[in-house]
C-alpha cells in the first residue's frame, strides 16, 4: 500500500505558504531502492500543489547535491504526472493520510534528432554498431547509414528476391581489417551473411558493393528473425560468430559462421554455377551453410529468437503459439517454456539477465521472470492502442524498455511503473497525415530508432538522466 497512519509528519523546510493564506498541506514519505540517492526515512509535510519539480528540489536539498539531479516519483506503481492534490482527487486518496512515494532518477524526454528515408516499409532496425543504423526493407534491400562511412555515408545491400524481414550486425573476430559483417533473412526463405568494406581503397573512392559470404539454407517459410551472438562473451567456449534464425515454419536454426563449418559447395553469386570448394573463398563465390542444430518445439510462427546476453549456450524464442521458450544450445533442446493467451509478436532480453519482455497482439507489453516457477506472465504494461510489434531493452539499465506499436507510437517504459509509460513518442508525419504503424525498434542507450509503415526511420536522442542535468527539465 502507499498510505499509512502512524507517527506525526515532520514539516518540510521547503514548504512555502501561498500569498493570501496558508496552503493545504499533505504528509508524504520518500523512499528509494537506489542506495546512492537514499535519504533518511522521514515524513515531510508539503503543500498539495507540489509536483515532481518541487519534490526533486526537496531530495536534492536533503542530499546536498551541488548539481541537482531530476527524479521521477511512483505512487502505487503509477508515475506522478500532476500535483499531489490532483493525484489525491483523481485516485480518491484522502489528504489526511501519509502518502508513500518511491523516487528514482528520471529518464529525460527523448528528443527527435532526425528522420532517414527508406525505399519501402521498414521491417527491422539494428544499432548494434556505435553510430550506425542498419535497416531492412520490404523493397528486398538493406541499408546502412553511418557517419563512419565515406560520403554519402550510406551502403545498400541487394540480393534478396523478396522483402527482407530481419537484419542484424554480426560481431566477429575472423574478418579482415576494415571489413564488417551483417546478416539478414526474409520472405525468400534464405538467410544471408554479408561482408562490406568500411575503408575506401583510395581518397574520395566509393566503397565496394557489399557481397554475400554465406547463404543459410534451412527454412521452408519466410525467415522472421535473424540475431547474432554478442562477442566477446566471458562464458563463451569459442569466439566464433554465431547466428540464430527463426521462421514462420516454427523452426529455430543455430549457425556457426566459422569458415569450413557445415559448408556445402560454393556457387557464383546470382548464377547457381557450382565450383570446386577452395580453401580460401574467392571473390564472387558464395558458400552455402547448413545449421549446426535445429530447435524444434514451436507449433506456430516464431516471431523472434535471440541468444542469452551472457551465456552463449542459452537462447530464447517467442511466437504465435503463445509461448516463450528457453533453449539449451549445448544439447539443442528445450529447457523451459512459459505460456500465455497472447500471440507474441516480439521479444527482448532485459539487461537484468533473468527477465524477458514481449509485445503482443492484445496491445500489451509483458515481462517474464525466468526465476519464477510459474509458467505465466510476471507483469503486464498497458498503454498502447494497437498491437505491440517491437520491443527493445536498454543495453545497461535493467528496467528500461522501448516498445513500438501499430498505434504509430514508440513508448518508453520503466518496469516499476507498469500502469503508465514514461514517454510516448509519436512517429513523425506530415500535417494531417495518418500515423504510420511502427514495425521495428532498437535502443543503444543513446538513441531510440524506429521504423515501419511510412518508409522512414525516426531517431530520438536520449539523454542520460543521471548526468548533471537541471532539475527544471523534469517538468
What does this molecule look like?
A hairpin with a 3-residue loop joins strand 32 (400-405) and strand 33 (409-414). The strands form 8 sheets. Strands 1, 2, 3, 4, 5, 6 and 7 form a 7-stranded mixed sheet that branches. Strands 13-14-15-16-21-20 form a 6-stranded mixed sheet, with no helix packed on it. It is built from 2 helices and 37 strands. The model is unreliable at 1-7, 13-20, 233-237, 270-282 and 465-475 (pLDDT under 50). The longest helix has 12 residues, at 52-63. The chain has helices at 52-63, 84-91, and strands at 3-4, 10-11, 25-31, 43-47, 71-75, 78-79, 98-105, 111-117, 122-126, 132-137, 141-146, 154-158, 164-170, 179-186, 191-197, 211-216, 223-228, 242-247, 252-256, 267-268, 285-289, 293-295, 302-307, 314-319, 323-328, 333-339, 344-349, 355-360, 364-369, 379-382, 388-393, 400-405, 409-414, 423-426, 438-443, 447-452, 456-461. The protein is mainly beta. The chain starts with a strand and ends in a 14-residue tail after the last strand. It is globular and about 85 Å long. 4% of the residues lie in helices and 43% in strands.
Topology, please?
Blueprint: E1 3-4, E2 10-11, E3 25-31, E4 43-47, H1 52-63, E5 71-75, E6 78-79, H2 84-91, E7 98-105, E8 111-117, E9 122-126, E10 132-137, E11 141-146, E12 154-158, E13 164-170, E14 179-186, E15 191-197, E16 211-216, E17 223-228, E18 242-247, E19 252-256, E20 267-268, E21 285-289, E22 293-295, E23 302-307, E24 314-319, E25 323-328, E26 333-339, E27 344-349, E28 355-360, E29 364-369, E30 379-382, E31 388-393, E32 400-405, E33 409-414, E34 423-426, E35 438-443, E36 447-452, E37 456-461
Parallel strand pairs: 2-4, 3-7, 16-21
Antiparallel strand pairs: 1-7, 3-4, 5-6, 5-7, 8-37, 9-10, 10-11, 11-12, 13-14, 14-15, 15-16, 17-18, 18-19, 19-22, 20-21, 23-24, 24-25, 25-26, 27-28, 28-29, 29-30, 31-32, 32-33, 33-34, 35-36, 36-37
